[in-house]
Amino acid sequence: MAGDWIFVFLLLASIAKVQSSVFDVTSAAYGGKPNSDITQALANAWRDACASTWPTKVVIPKGTYNLRGAILQGPCKAPIEVQVQGNLKAPLDSKYLTKQDTWVGFQYVDRLTLYGGGSFDGQNNCYKNKYCKATDAINLRLDFVTNAMIRDITSLDSKHFHINVFGCRNVTFQYVTITAPEDSANTDGIHIGRSYGITIDHTTIGTGDDCISLGDGSQRIIVTNVTCGPGHGISIGSLGKYQSEVPVAGVLVKNCTLTNTQNGLRIKTWPGSPAFGTATHIHFQDIAMVNVGNPIFIDQQYCPYSQCAQKAPSTVQISSVSFVNIKGTSATPVAVQLMCSRKLPCQNVGLEDIDITYSGDKGPLTSQCAYVKPQFTRVANPLSCATNPFSLRSRRNPANVLSR
């Protein structure tokens, strides 16, 4: 009989512990309410959840909430979930943000799960007002987050990048939706830097800048089943602008669709790089393109707004790059551009099963290559640098080495 009472006591204690592991920002303990500011309620709920030695969950229920900002820091003592079911709205005026470069941030958290079907609305309306001063407020920033899952959330109208990933390991993004107007500047979808083991899967991104951009130190990155457009495409870089950049290595982009983007699959490095860098083992495979500008593009003279000295070559070595089974339509006649550095020509670049067409009136379908000896397999003649007016291709030069 005593044993039965002990069992009941332990069961009730376990139930109480499970119940106490849920931290609802709208509970009496935290006082958050829909259509009001929950900045302090969320901070308090996170503080208590992060301190628990049991796995915990912070909940933002359905509804619309104002949030001036949240920097949610670890380390936490146990795995932690953040279930965002509601719609969070940033201040329209950036001066009311609690931190000028970050709206919602997670820092030094291990075993984080962020999910719930809710949205993070940055309320960026600068694209509507030419006098509006743009800010650097990122909708969602992950710094030094490990072993995390980000799924089933939406990022809307960020004032800068939508999601920024830095110093992270083993983080998966799945079923994420990112939306911003095509003319909203610097609204990259997901930007990754100095991170290892990042997966982006079944995600839809349409912005005014790169759908996905990989900065220096991006290693073992897998991008699959991503729908991109509008925007500037999927980009490695830009690289080579700063001293002490970390190599980019091990990138796979597969089974993606790009529609009406300014660029397609791009690797971009600055000329006049201050230090030697590398980008290697980068593979693009099974990509569908619809009316994409510059579908295949290695650009080692990337220089927006004339911010660099064009005469100095890039010192970023690009190697072991493949484009396989890339099909669709180009918005420009130059469908393949492999413009490498004259100081460090690209090494081991291959194109296989490339079928891109152009139906515009700006000239015939063509390609350009410089300082590279690409290997072409089942690539139509106009896409193999054979018709470029700068071509040095001849029977003596079967490797298609071009210069300009």
Automatic annotation (TrEMBL):
Keyword field contains Signal: yes
Spans through the membrane: none
Keywords: Cell wall, Cell wall biogenesis/degradation, Glycosidase, Hydrolase, Secreted, Signal
Principal localisation: secreted
InterPro entries: Glyco_hydro_28 (IPR000743), PbH1 (IPR006626), Pectin_lyas_fold (IPR012334), Pectin_lyase_fold/virulence (IPR011050)
Active site: 232
Subcellular location: Secreted, Cell wall
Any one Pfam family match given in the protein's UniProt record, by short name: Glyco_hydro_28
Signal sequence range: 1-20
SMART domains the record matches: PbH1
Family: Belongs to the glycosyl hydrolase 28 family.
Protein name per Swiss-Prot or TrEMBL: Exopolygalacturonase-like
Organism: Prunus mume (Japanese apricot)
